[in-house]
Amino acid sequence: MDTEIVSVDNHVGNSLSYQRAVDILKNGGVVAFPTETVYGLGAVATDSNAVQKIFEAKGRPSDNPLIVHIGNKEDVDKYALDVPENAKKLMEAYWPGPLTLVFNKRPGVIAENATPGFETVGIRMPDHPVALTLLRKLDLPLAAPSANRSGKPSPTEANHVFTDLLGRIPLIVDGGRTGVGVESTVLDMTTVPPTILRPGGLTREMIEELIGPVHAESKVSKEDAPKAPGMKYMHYAPESPLFIIESDEKVIREAVRKLNDEEKRVAVIGPDEFKIDEADWYFPVGPLRDQEALAANLYGAIRQCDMTEADIILAAETEWTGVGAAVMNRLLKAADGKRFTI
Ligand code: TXA
Ligand code: MG
């Protein structure tokens, strides 16, 4: 299969750019498209044959449910039952935006294989002009996981999708780099209080400001039974082992020196300000303590590390506040819980 890229970056409103995407989707195919978080791989969520193609293209385990993307808030009631008052408040305040809400599923509408074996459905309205235009032109819901091959970081640029899915999907709609850079927050509205199943682009603080305390999975819950099914799968393991390290220039330099003494080549992911001359590769991910920049640049940096010959990757940590919670959640997974101490 040839993989075509159509760029809409500078003419978001141009209908022609979307026509091929709409045609492919209406005919039961898959299309990669940008959202404000990461690129998604979409298929019409009511078409089980189309949804099946998502799992095949990604190599995704078929028991991991997909998020349903909608272009208008009102569409929620077509796919969900018992939408609580708190959810309506969240939708009013934060949709479109990086927040996926899990509801009881309205039976018989969304394809069974999009939420395999689940009585619930995760729904979100993405805050990206290309995603919204596509959804509205299509006038159908899109089931869409992140558009990476299973085991790779989520794509934040069209060329990441191209690298992973070349020859496996017919079309990538290129809308430039995504803004948020980590996936949406998944909030289960079927529990009281609601439960954050996956920290993401919308912070816990912003949710709690609006609806009061929510429950959150513990930071390191490897032993716990995974509630967000996606949690039980290896998210992405960089080719070389990744270690989280204290965000301190001296500590990192010391660590790199130690590793160099052991003849190891080291790639470091850290803030713009640090100068780690000893490192074989240094990938800056934004100003010190700028968690938004870190989130936006993290996946790209991990992909860059994978293109080096590094034996080991060190990633400077951030605080578990704001979007830092999502960053640390992803880093812990990429590191499989490992920390580097000197
Ligand atoms: O930002 C995002 O959410 C991106 C963009 C493309 O929208 N999508 C994304 O999808 O990250 P995916 O499939 O890579 O991750 C979806 C996560 C998984 O951890 C999955 O287990 C969880 O959401 N999920 C989906 N439906 C669920 C449900 N009904 N109950 C519990 N968890 C659910
Ligand atoms: Mg994913």
Describe this structure in words.
The radius of gyration is 20 Å and the shape is globular. By secondary structure, the protein is of the alpha/beta class. Strand 2 and strand 3 form a beta hairpin. It contains ten helices and 16 strands. It has two domains: 208 residues, DHBP synthase; 93 residues, 3-Layer(aba) Sandwich (Rossmann fold). The longest helix is centred in the last third of the chain and has 16 residues. The structure holds threonylcarbamoyladenylate and magnesium ion (MG). Magnesium ion binds next to loops.
Topology:
Elements: E1 4-7, H1 15-26, E2 31-34, E3 39-44, H2 48-58, E4 67-69, H3 76-79, E5 80-81, H4 85-94, E6 99-105, E7 120-124, H5 129-138, E8 142-143, H6 158-165, E9 171-174, E10 185-188, E11 195-198, H7 204-211, E12 215-216, E13 242-245, H8 249-261, E14 266-270, E15 281-284, H9 291-306, E16 312-316, H10 324-334
Parallel strand pairs: 1-9, 2-9, 4-7, 6-10, 11-12, 13-16, 14-15, 14-16
Antiparallel strand pairs: 2-3, 3-8, 4-8, 5-6, 6-7, 10-11
Bound molecules: threonylcarbamoyladenylate (TXA) and magnesium ion.
Short description:
With 342 residues, the chain is α/β, with parallel strands linked by helices. It is 30% helix and 19% strand.
Give the integer mean of the pLDDT values.
94
Present as ligands are: threonylcarbamoyladenylate, magnesium ion
Poorly predicted ranges (pLDDT <50, ≥5 residues)?
A: 221-226
- Tell me about the biggest sheet? 12 strands, mixed
- Dominant shape: globular
Strand content: 15-25%
Corresponding CATH architecture of the largest domain:
Alpha-Beta Complex
Within CATH, the superfamily of the largest domain carries the name DHBP synthase
Number of domains: 2
